[in-house]
Amino acid sequence: MSPFAITETVLRDAQQSLMATRMATSDFKDILETMDKAGYRSVECWGGATFDACLRYLHEDPWERLRAIRAHMPHTKLQMLLRGQNLLGYHHYSDDTVRRFTAASVENGVDIVRIFDALNDLRNIRTAVEACLSAGGEAQGTVCYTLSPIHDQAMYVALGKEIQAMGCQSLCIKDMAGIMSPRECYDLVSALKDAVDLPVYVHTHATTGLAYMTYLKAAEAGAAGIDCATSCFSGGTSQPSTASMVYALGQMGFDCGVDPAVLKQVDDFFVPVQKKFAENGVFDPYVLSTKTDALVYQVPGGMLSNLVSQLKAQNAIDKLDQVLAEIPKVRKDLGYPPLVTPLSQMVGVQATVNVLLGERYKSIGKEIQAYIRGEYGTAPGPIDPKLQRRVLGDQSPIRGRYAEGLAPEFPEAQAKLGGDARSDLDVLSYIAFPQQAEQFFTDRAMKEALVASYTIREVE
Ligand code: CO
Predict the structure, then answer these.
(1) Ligand 1 centre from 227 Cα, in Å?
(2) Contacts of 222 by beta carbon, 8 Å cutoff, 6+ apart
(3) Residue 67 and residue 50: Cα distance in Å, rounded?
(4) CA–CA separation, 139 and 156 (whole Å)
(5) What are phi and psi of 413, to 5 degrees?
(6) Ligand 1 centroid to 390 CA: how many Å?
(7) Strand ranges inside 240-358, DSSP E
(8) N or C: which end of the chain has fewer CB within 10 A?
(9) Å from CA of 453 to ligand 1 middle
(10) pLDDT, tens digit (0-9, with 9 covering 90-100), for 43-74
């Protein structure tokens, strides 16, 4: 039997892709000790949209969540997803912020930092990789997988070599949209194994129904492991089921080192959680059905569930098909960026605006303009010249690394917050999401004042 690693994603990608990351720490805290006994290589539990969702919707301190998971899961590696220079947000932060934030993530409990850049412009992951390595974490360099006339295997292999040269200890092929076919996966993993001396992990989504087959071929091609989700949070825009993959792979000679009895306990715990979010409408069963259209649209899971909720909020859900058809056109105009955060949101919003206003690029989003100026890195392919001219006029886009020109953010933020920040982590939360963090600090202080007043009354 060959050893094969499983990463469980229920606490991050599964809930992000199925229900917009609305799971509170109280929803899963009681199962962490059991999960710790399952035998996963790692549990992906932080990063991605969890940080924003904690502050914005759940009134939780994301750092406290991380420490709580660490405390209740001492034996399993904790994994996070980091958007390179974008950290967990939607724009590029300064290098000092990226260094501090990455180091703080490792210091507060993260073992493996999976780092990607939405454009596969690896200049944008270097600072985070270096900070992760100096803090003693495992830096997992990531290649975002997409299909386009300009993306081919040679391009991905070149990226893999660059990731190895950067000092990353492992490599991830990240297929956000679940569009990587079993054949493509087999060929790509094989090519990377030939060219690069790093363990290769494969991440995909079950959106198009290919994922189970793709994972099997990943194993056969010599991948080191895959990402799965507990059964009741698996399928659709989420990952394939952990228990099913472990069962099938075991028969094929791959030892995942995972205890099926514990997987069952974990899943039993999450069934009522899933049910609660389904009943209150947060978990929309729409995201669970297989959508082969995604092979055309290449819309990742989280993006699809966001689009559905945004269009519903605007009473325009009947425009979904039109928006889905507009997305690949916008993508082409922008030089085929992979659809992953923040590009997925930016392209999604621009496509929606193009459809809802009834005229393409009548209004161009601020972020799309920044993208065209080169502030997110180099576009994989050429940007539509007409669109580029409309945004840039006679100016040329930035060629260097955008963050090079950003002044340090930490000292100013620290001075501005004064006593509101109780730690450097508060300052980092504020830099990452200023409005949400300020609101959180205010709420926290109010809650504490309330608790204090109750205590006094009790003493009386
Ligand atoms: Co994902």
Answers:
(1) 9
(2) 189, 190, 193, 200
(3) 14
(4) 18
(5) -65, -40
(6) 34
(7) 254-255
(8) C
(9) 44
(10) 999 999 999 999 999 999 999 999 999 999 99
